[in-house]
């Protein structure tokens, strides 16, 4: 429970930061290349459809944001990719609590399997249900898992790059497949 509260608090603070730029100038018909330079790019395929950080900021939050911070005895990571040009306002959120990343290493995206030490890495896909004005949340679980691979980590320049994929499920059992995910961002320390 503490991990979930901490993750939510950190992600909310992340969404209020303005660490990256609007990426509308990117080619919206393909994923960005996999880079490791702090290019502030990201994207993935959701059920075969391209999701990119696009559109105008909502409530002063960026469409692409990331943090990697040491807090309460461990490192916490968050990445949010929002497509505000899509009518369903889809978002991808990756998070990790109490994990010290190593360049070149992969991390399991699942549910919180160790509540005592708050170790948790997860993937979430969120869309807006315009008929009910509710959010539909697809999350990784023990069964629906994924992988986050850190390909570059520069703690002096605050650059983090990586790839990801995951399967997620909503409360009704509907599945979402997130594939070919990549990010190369400047993060908030």
UniProtKB/TrEMBL annotation:
Lineage of the organism: Bacteria, Pseudomonadati, Bacteroidota, Flavobacteriia, Flavobacteriales
Protein name: Lipoprotein
């Amino acid at each position: 429970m503490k991990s979930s509260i901490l993750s939510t608090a950190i992600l909310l603070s992340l969404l209020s930061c303005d660490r990256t730029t609007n990426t509308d100038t990117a080619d919206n018909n393909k994923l960005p290349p996999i880079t490791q330079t702090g290019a502030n790019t990201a994207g993935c395929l959701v059920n075969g459809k391209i999701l990119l950080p696009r559109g105008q900021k909502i409530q002063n939050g960026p469409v692409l944001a990331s943090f990697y911070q040491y807090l309460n005895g461990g490192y916490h990571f968050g990445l949010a990719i929002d497509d505000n040009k899509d009518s369903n306002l889809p978002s991808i959120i990756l998070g990790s609590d109490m994990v010290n990343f190593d360049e070149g290493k992969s991390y399991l995206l699942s549910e919180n399997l160790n509540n005592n030490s708050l170790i948790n890495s997860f993937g979430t896909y969120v869309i807006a249900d315009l008929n009910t004005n509710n959010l539909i949340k697809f999350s990784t679980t023990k069964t629906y898992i994924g992988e986050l691979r850190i390909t570059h980590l520069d703690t002096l320049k605050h650059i983090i790059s990586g790839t990801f994929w995951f399967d997620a499920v909503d409360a009704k059992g509907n599945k979402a497949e997130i594939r070919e995910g990549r990010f190369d961002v400047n993060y908030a320390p």
